[in-house]
Amino acid sequence: MSVPELPFTGERFIPGTRGEIWVEHWHRYHFAARWAAGKRVLDVACGEGYGSALLAKHAAHVTGVDISEEALAHARAAYAAQGNLRFEAGSCSALPLADASVDLAVSFETVEHIEEQERFLDELARVLAPDGVLVMSCPNKLEYSDRRNYTNEFHVRELYRDELRALVAKRFAHVAWYGQRPTFFSVIAPEAQAQPEGHLLEVTEAAPAQGQPRLENPLYFLLVASRRAESLAAVAPALSVLADRDDWVHKDYEKVMSWLEMVAKERDQLRNAVSLQEAAIGAQRALGEAQAAAHAAEVRLLEADNARRRGWRWWLRLPLVRLGLLKR
């Protein structure tokens, strides 16, 4: 069965897309897989289907839902071999699942794309079992847009932390907050004050000895929510780190730095060439001015000689000069 090609739009992630986008997206699904073991799972806005397929390796069954028929056709063909995975058409405001039919609902970078955010959360709460768990993410507007002076044309309504908290708290009484920021690694870290499994220490270059065991300004929020505290307690808070085995980000960083060094050298060479050119132009200008001054002096001498020759005394002296009796 041939797999329909799915183009990269600039927003919907497609496996193979280069850049930090792949680190961010894959890390979220690996993170969510901790709650998926043996569960009935829903992946809302599944897109290409790669995340649903990853969750299906751990879950009893996974349903990927997306509004794009193009994406669904690709996903069904690309992941047809996984028998515990299916893809359904549906919108965030009307999920095609029965009440309390899933144990884990996953939705990454979805809520900021829709106006009906309240309805979306209502639908997630409806399809989740009473002890079900929601794992979702959205950009942190303060970091993602405000501080970077950046506008994502695909986003309808981004959320600040308090707005996201209010949206979720209406449906889920218990929430554990995590933050994600891609660097040379992608890190997802719990905000819980208790030290989680693993170790995280965030410092600054200016104060490397002063660290704290949390991400101060995450670029994205990830949260795990449930109606029951024991559902959250079943999976202990843990630090999650995704590392690129091929080290693409660091290699790209080295490539960029090498390019910048090359540009800086070329800039210095151009500056030296310009300086030499300016010096040569200055020398040419001085030579031209000297030649012009010499020419002007010669002209003045000729003009003076011509003026002298026009006088009557010069003509009276000329015969004597020719006889050698007088000097010119």
Which features does this protein show?
nine-stranded mixed beta sheet, elongated, 2 domains, Rossmann fold, 328 residues, alpha/beta
The end-to-end distance, rounded to whole angstroms, is 112 Å
CATH superfamily of the largest domain: Vaccinia Virus protein VP39
The second-level CATH architecture of the largest domain is: 3-Layer(aba) Sandwich
Return the average pLDDT rounded to an integer: 86
Helical segment tally?
9
Integer count of domains? 2
Contiguous low-pLDDT stretches (5 residues minimum) are none
Q: Main β-sheet: number of strands, strand sense, barrel status?
A: 9 strands, mixed
Detailed description of the structure:
The chain has about 325 residues and is α/β, with parallel strands linked by helices. The protein has 2 domains: about 230 residues, Vaccinia Virus protein VP39 (Rossmann fold); about 60 residues. It contains 9 helices and 9 strands. It has a 9-stranded mixed β-sheet with strand order 3-2-1-4-5-8-6-7-9. Helix 4 links the parallel strand 4 and strand 5. Helix 1 runs parallel beside helix 2. The termini are far apart. The mean pLDDT is about 85.
Please sum up the structure shown.
Helices cover 41% and strands 18% of the residues. With 328 residues, it is α/β, with parallel strands linked by helices.
How do the helices and strands line up, and which of them pair or pack?
Layout: H1 20-32, E1 40-44, H2 50-56, E2 61-66, H3 69-78, E3 85-89, E4 102-108, H4 117-127, E5 128-139, H5 141-146, H6 161-169, E6 174-182, E7 186-190, E8 220-226, H7 229-233, E9 240-242, H8 248-309, H9 312-322
Parallel strand pairs: 1-2, 1-4, 2-3, 4-5
Antiparallel strand pairs: 5-8, 6-7, 6-8, 7-9
